[in-house]
Amino acid sequence: MTTLVTGATGFVGSHVARQLVTAGHPVRILARKNSNLQPLEGFSVERVEGDLRDAVSLERAMRGVRRVFHVAADYRLSARNPGELYESNVDGTRLLLEAARDAGVERIVYTSTVATMAVPVDDGALPNEETRAVLGQMIGHYKRSKFLAELEAIKAASAGVPVVIVNPTAPVGPGDWKPTPTGRIVVDFLNGKMPAYVDTGLNVVPVEDVAAGHLLAAEKGRIGERYILGARNMTLKQILDALAQITGRPAPRMKMPHAVALAAGYADQWISRLTGREPQIPVEGVKMSRHRMFVESDKAERELGYEPSSVEAALERAVRWYEEHGYIRGRAGSKAVPHAAAA
Predict the structure, then answer these.
(1) For 253-297, what is each residue's pLDDT tens digit?
(2) Residue 163's domain spans which residues?
(3) Cα angle vertex 281, ends 248, 80, to 5°?
């Protein structure tokens, strides 16, 4: 049974592809011509060259496929051309679902994000899969594009396409090559670039558990349902304290007001436009940090048998991986770390 994975060169997608191959499944990946295949080094996969925005390449990738994991997304909090996010995340998802439907695919797992439901709730309860957010609650183009893409998946499921939706929280662990915004927290901490923190929080989850949750959703998930793949709600201060415990490096003690962080973000954005570099303090990320993205994530445990593991252990695996792969400045083999991330 051939399984197609999109986004297999990204953080979550590479772990999904690895777990499928380890379990003995023939895996095909859809990748662009210039994609970095290093995340899949040592694993045998079939590659089909293509793009989510190219219907012909999607049709070609679907031939003989029975399951699809659509993990790919344009994950950037600062994009010079926001339209690119909607083309890949919304239009690309719609085209992929149409191609999968026409090919008679038996099961599709669509990777959304917890951001589509992690919004303030009136009664003070934690958001969960039953929380119905609206587009106006989505901060920034990335969140809005993923919200609209999830609606495409829900609409397809209502029309009979066998789609199950998973909503990962903030994954951490080895193999975050870009790195993602969550991985950026770890890298910046390791490089001593976090003199202060803001009062925010998120649900953190080992990336290996997120990948395992994808496979469980393919086997046990109900069509049209959403499943949060998370582990533990943590404030940013708690995350930094955990990293301090792992590394022996001091955690920042000064709490920065959101207004100051936002001003710094706008200043950095202005400088980035003049210099042509990617912003180091994404304004959208600062705006998001005003709300703690805490959620309730036990539905996947009840229905899928999903079992999240230790977040501290995942943070330690991430730290060791970044150290081994030269992300720490001033050490042999260190390298500049890009700021954009693609899931």
Answers:
(1) 876 655 555 455 545 555 666 666 666 666 566 555 556 689 998
(2) 2-173+205-231+294-309
(3) 140
Q: What is the CATH number of the domain that holds 91?
A: 3.40.50.720
**Residue 161 in domain:** yes
Q: How many domains does the chain have?
A: 1
Nearest to residue 121, comparing CAs of 137, 141, 139? 137
* Whether the predicted pLDDT of 126 surpasses 60: yes
Q: Do residues 245 and 237 touch, judged by C-beta distance below 8 A?
A: no
Model confidence at 240: pLDDT above 60:
yes
The alpha-carbon radius of gyration of the chain (Å, integer) is 19
How big is the CA angle at 115 (ends 52 and 112), to the nearest 5 degrees? 30
Nearest to residue 127, comparing CAs of 256, 337, 298?
298
Cβ-Cβ contacts under 8 Å for 275 (sequence gap 6 or more): none
Phi/psi at 307 (5° precision): -130, 95
- Calpha distance 269→274 (Å, rounded): 9
pTM score of the predicted model:
0.88
Point out which residues pair with 226 in neighbouring strands: 165
Task: Report the pLDDT averaged over residues 128-146.
Answer: 92
Q: Report if residue 258 sits inside a domain.
A: no
Q: How confident is the model at residue 334 (pLDDT cuts 50, 70, 90)?
A: very low
Query: In one letter, which amino acid is 215?
Result: L
Q: Would residue 197 count as lying in a domain?
A: no
Q: Quick one: 28 exposed, middle or buried, by C-beta within 10 A (0-12, 13-18, 19+)?
A: buried
Measured between alpha carbons, how far is 338 from 324 in angstroms, rounded to an integer?
17
Q: Given this model, what pLDDT does residue 238 score?
A: 95
At 38 the pLDDT is: 87
Whether 337 maps to a domain, the answer reads: no
